[in-house]
Amino acid sequence: MREVLAARSRDAASPTFSPDGLYFPGPVYEDHWGLPAEVPAYHWLP
Question: How much of the chain is helix, strand and coil, in % rounded to 5?
Answer without folding.
Answer: 35, 0, 65
